[in-house]
TrEMBL record:
<dbReference type="Pfam" id="PF01161">
    <property type="entry name" value="PBP"/>
</dbReference>
<dbReference type="InterPro" id="IPR036610">
    <property type="entry name" value="PEBP-like_sf"/>
</dbReference>
<protein>
    <recommendedName>
        <fullName>Phospholipid-binding protein, PBP family</fullName>
    </recommendedName>
</protein>
<dbReference type="InterPro" id="IPR008914">
    <property type="entry name" value="PEBP"/>
</dbReference>
<dbReference type="InterPro" id="IPR005247">
    <property type="entry name" value="YbhB_YbcL/LppC-like"/>
</dbReference>
Length: 207
């Protein structure tokens, strides 16, 4: 099975049109176009009954005290955790492409609805927790929301776009399910998978 993410080469920087946040010399960060990239795949194994799409960043600081704080930096040595940016399950076996902008086209304050989307069923990404204390942005963020790493992070972040071929038509997930729920539901049902990894930073010293 082979996955292709149009516009993102493995190990290379992610274009700003796919980002939730883009670099700003004046404000550190402005909202970006936040379009999901086109993801396509081929050579799924026989017996595939659905697909799941997962995009996550494993480089998110485990402590947020210094995140985006003037005069401070987030140390590259700080332990890191996974941050899910895109969860799409129950993608029909007949599907082999998600078009650019199909699941996200712009930053939506308070988030897009989880549940059935244009293709498959959307889970809840971690912007839900990240923006919970922002009264203008707090809400439930379903589907795709792109890169927006801390602008004072010493580490360049990596974003894994993964597609899984599954032996079930549905994972049986409903409501506001998260990335860990998707991983748990997929256990024992993965026939094949592949990933493309892009990088992104808002730190002007690393750009």
């Amino acid at each position: 099975m082979k996955v292709h993410v149009n516009g993102i080469d493995d190990g290379k920087p992610i274009p700003e049109k796919f980002a939730f946040g883009v670099y700003s010399e004046e404000n550190h960060m402005n909202f970006g176009p936040n379009r999901n990239p086109e993801v396509s795949w081929q050579d799924a194994p026989e017996g595939t009954r659905s697909f799941a799409v997962v995009m996550f960043d494993p480089d998110v600081p485990s402590e947020a005290d210094d995140v985006n704080q003037e005069g401070k930096t987030v140390s590259r040595d700080l332990p890191r955790v996974d941050f899910f940016h895109w969860l799409l399950v129950d993608v029909p076996a007949s599907t082999s492409r998600i078009p650019e902008g199909e699941d996200s086209d712009g930053v939506i304050p308070k988030g897009k609805d989880p549940g059935p989307g244009p293709i498959g069923v959307r889970g809840v990404n971690n912007f839900t927790q990240f923006l919970a204390d922002n009264p203008d942005m707090a809400g439930t963020y379903g589907g795709y929301d792109g890169p927006c790493p801390p602008w004072n992070d010493e580490l360049i972040h990596h974003y894994h776009f993964e597609v899984y071929a599954l032996d079930v038509e549905t994972l049986g997930l409903e409501g506001e399910f998260d990335g860990e729920a998707v991983r748990e539901a997929m256990e024992g049902h993965i026939l094949a998978s592949d990933r493309v990894t892009g990088t992104y930073t808002l730190n002007p010293d690393l750009r």
